[in-house]
Amino acid sequence: MKNRSNQFIKLLSLLIAAVFCTASFGVLDSENVSSSAGRSGEGNAFTLAPRVSDGVSIVLPDEDALTVFGHEQGDRFVFDETKELAFTAVFGDGWSYNSTYSHFFDGDSRAAVAENGDGSMEFRFSASEGDSVETEKLLSVQINAACDELPKLYIDAAVPFEEIGKTEWVEANYTLTLGTKRFESGEYEGEGFVKGRGNSSWLAAKKPYSIKLNSKASLLDIPKTKKYAVIPSYHDGSLMRNFITYKALQDLLGIDYVPKCEFVDLYLNGEYNGIYILVERIDIEKSKVNIEEADAENISGGYLIEKNIRGKFSLQDDIWFNCPYWANQTQDYFELHAPEPEGELREEMLSYLEDWVNDIHDCIMNDSGDYLDYVDTSSWIDFLILQEVSKNPDGNFKTSCWLYKDRDDEHMYMTAPWDFDFAYGLVDWNNASPGHNDETDCPQSFTFEDFMIINSSNPWMKKLYETKPEFARALAIRYTEYRSTIIPHMFELIEEQAAYLSAVQVPNYELWGKNFTSGVNGLRSFLHGRTEWLDGQWLIEDGSVDLDEALNIEGGELHFETENEQPSFLGGVRNDTYAGVASENGSTVAFTAELVRGDFLGFTCAFTGEGSLMLLVNGEEALTADEAGSFFWTAHEAGTYEFRWVYQKVSAFGEAVLRDVSIDLGRRLGDLDGDGEVTVADALLLMRASMGLTELDYPRLADMNANGSIDIADAIILLRRSMGII
User: Fold this and answer.
1) Tens digit of pLDDT for each residue in 217-246?
2) What pTM, to 2 d.p., does this model score?
3) N or C: which terminus of the chain carries fewer CB neighbours within 10 A?
4) Which segments of the chain belong to CATH 2.60.120.260?
């Protein structure tokens, strides 16, 4: 203790000497630089952007042909000038215009479509100043083309296909030729094996098959793999329920892997068997579920697992462990797909996994701990939304629901959406089982109303949704985002792929008798009705949640603004308190305040996924937060300050949560003892703190040179300031 005292006396002497030294330590002054967004002078200019399918290119008569001045009025766009919007659609070899599934101001007499002698199409829309049109029609111009020929996949097996079953692999040769649509991977010839697959789909006349190539290959630009499947969509007249789901869900924020697929004409031992979807099979691979398999040295993970029910896998031949709840059928199970351990290692891994899911169950159902320690909310929310949008009777966490556990990570991650054959209102059953608890609240799958997964068929989801308001609100926020991204993309894909298949589907209809036009209409109609009902449950309308209320501390009166030209923060609820939530890279929110020296800004933030929040003060970076916590910034000079948060997303999915923003007035920079004045006593207190002899109640008021650390330099500055020298 004597040595520390002597050190303190020496440092005090140095401190006093430094007070009068001509070479003083510098003080960082904040520059008062305002950052206002400029206007281009064309704020009311709108440029029509037609969506075009494969095989279509747009030619403009001049660069301004699709730009018009106007303004929105309710749900209509009003033209501020007389203008003809015009373009030509040119079609590639093997492609032709499909008017049924293209849309150009449908039903409006001011729109004209004409065919040119070379097969191109002329599109014109004429409007006079003061005319108006539905904004939706302006935004949904879509020119789609039909193809002359699909890729053809030939599977030549060593036995007749009627002899092929689901258990034994049969040797086969494969040939893939391209059709109208071009693929960089080109054509293919190779060898491998084939066997049957599926459950109820295997009972249909048009059967599904699994493919195993002898060596990895990229078919139709799907990343190289040995494992593919051909899915018949026999009951689906549109042929595209699986296809549009897999394609649209590539943009999910929370699920990091969705299978890739393409349409093919399938030939079995030389005989045409109809249109199928060629899709990669789910597995642990770098281009699929990218985790490292568990082994004897690392039993914590990773594992690829499917939620399944008795009767849809083999209790004798497959690797499985019990689910902690009974919701349907005889019992619920988890099926382990990878790794495939044997002997004692199998028993050890299954015991480990069973303990893991029991811990998850107790945490969610019995509140034995924090569910966030086990539930990856981002992927669970995505899983829940996609199953509810499709109202998939196979997807309510009963069967064909895939998940994984990564190494040294206790979270359960949902992955690989699969099996939408009966989704989107195609069937009139609900997958509930007499005598089990889901019989009471599992709805019919063909109606627009009711939740398909938030019920007793999946008690985990039901409990989280009904008892964790932050989970329910995060779900609503994510759905609201998808309502303007993924879901519109689904509608666009229906029209695009219907046009693509419109000519080539005829032989499939002649063989299997499934009406394509009726199927497309039914799919489109159900998706409209289903999203309309879900909008009433989850959609956050503009202005329905006050961003000021979300971001302020209780009783706070700060006013926040977002930039229209960038993705903005959205008001929401997390952990039973209001919060601002951002999920898109570049989301910003800001406010301006008049401060005096010593006032400080405080806020808290949290993250799902990887990302950071950067705080800009008058356009200059002040601090960056990349983990949950409370953060502070202190004004060193009086002036006008603009505070702006910018969300920087690192991973493919994630959100930033900002809340409890406040300005603390009346506590001066350097007033460490709280007596309302800055004196030598504060400087001595700061010096003791810099030596580790004491702790400060308000360390944010001690960083006098604003360099992010507290040391003797701050004490010297504070002493000089307390004596009026600076």
Assistant:
1) 999 999 999 999 999 999 999 999 999 999
2) 0.75
3) N
4) 547-664
Q: In whole angstroms, what is the distance from residue 676 CA to residue 335 CA?
A: 66
Token pair belonging to 197: 């697959």
Strands 45-47 and 67-73: antiparallel
Helices (H), 113-257: 135-139, 241-248
CATH number assigned to the domain covering 547-664? 2.60.120.260
Q: What is the CA 536 to chain-centroid distance, rounded? A: 21
CB 185 within 8 A of CB 219: yes
Q: Are strands 303-309 and 401-405 parallel, antiparallel or unpaired?
A: antiparallel
The token pair at 387 is 């199953």
Q: What is the phi/psi pair of residue 577, to 5°?
A: -125, 155
**pLDDT reported for residue 385:** 97
Lookup: tokens for 23: 């070479």
The residues of the chain that CATH labels 1.10.1330.10 are: 2-30+669-722
CB burial of 53-91 (b: ≥16 within 10 Å; e: otherwise) equals bebbeeeeeeeebbebebeeeeebbbbeeebebbbbbbb
SS3 content of the chain, % helix, strand, coil (to 5): 25, 30, 45
Q: Give the C-alpha separation, 584 to 547, whole Å.
A: 17
Query: And the tokens for 205?
Result: 């006349």
Give residue 519's pLDDT: 97
Bridge partners (DSSP) listed for residue 608:
655
Helix (H, G, I), strand (E, B) or coil at 250: helix
User: What pLDDT is recorded for position 481?
Assistant: 83
pLDDT band at 116 (very low <50, low <70, confident <90, very high): very high
> Any idea which of 20-29, 261-270, 342-351, 375-384 has the lowest mean pLDDT?
20-29
Please, which contacts does 179-182 make with residues 24 or more away whose CB atoms are closer than 8 Å?
A: 179/94, 179/147, 179/148, 179/149, 179/150, 179/151, 179/152, 179/265, 179/504, 180/55, 180/93, 180/94, 180/95, 180/147, 180/148, 180/149, 180/150, 181/54, 181/55, 181/147, 181/150, 181/151, 181/500
Burial of 628 (0-12, 13-18, 19+ CB in 10 A): exposed
Cα atoms in the Cβ-side hemisphere of radius 13 Å centred on 105: 21
The answer to whether 698 touches 631, Cβ cutoff 8 Å, is: no
Strand segments (E) across 234-392? 261-268, 271-280, 303-309, 320-322, 332-338
pLDDT for res 711:
85
State the number of CA atoms in the 13 A half-sphere of 163 facing the CB. 7
Q: Is 83 helix (H, G, I), strand (E, B) or coil?
A: strand
Q: Is the pLDDT of residue 96 over 80?
A: yes
Give residue 719's pLDDT band: very low, low, confident or very high (50, 70, 90).
Answer: confident
Q: How confident is the model at residue 250 (pLDDT cuts 50, 70, 90)?
A: very high
- Architecture of the CATH domain 2-30+669-722: Orthogonal Bundle (1.10)
Structural tokens at position 13: 């002497």
The better pLDDT of the pair 708, 614 is held by 614
Q: Is the per-residue pLDDT at 566 higher than 70?
A: no
What pLDDT score was predicted for residue 450? Answer: 94
DSSP states along 552-618: BPTT-----B--TTS-B-EEEEETTEEEEEE-STT-EEEEEEEE-TT-EEEEEEEEEEEEEEEEEET
- Residue 320 contacts residue 335 (beta carbons within 8 Å): yes
Round the average pLDDT of the chain to a whole number and report it.
Answer: 87
Per-residue CA distances from 550 to 146, 560, 634 (Å): 49, 10, 23
Residues with Cβ within 8 Å of residue 560, at least 6 apart in sequence: 547, 548, 551, 569, 580, 589, 590, 591, 661
Handedness of CA 52, 54, 60, 64 (dihedral sign): positive
612 vs 12, residue with greater confidence: 612
Cα gap 417→279, rounded to integer Å: 12
State yes or no: pLDDT of 670 exceeds 50: yes
Lowest mean pLDDT, pick from 165-179, 330-344, 521-535:
330-344
Count Cβ neighbours within 10 Å for each residue of 463-477 and write b for 16 or more, e otherwise: bbbeebebbbbbbbb
Cα distance between residue 2 and residue 112, in whole Å: 95
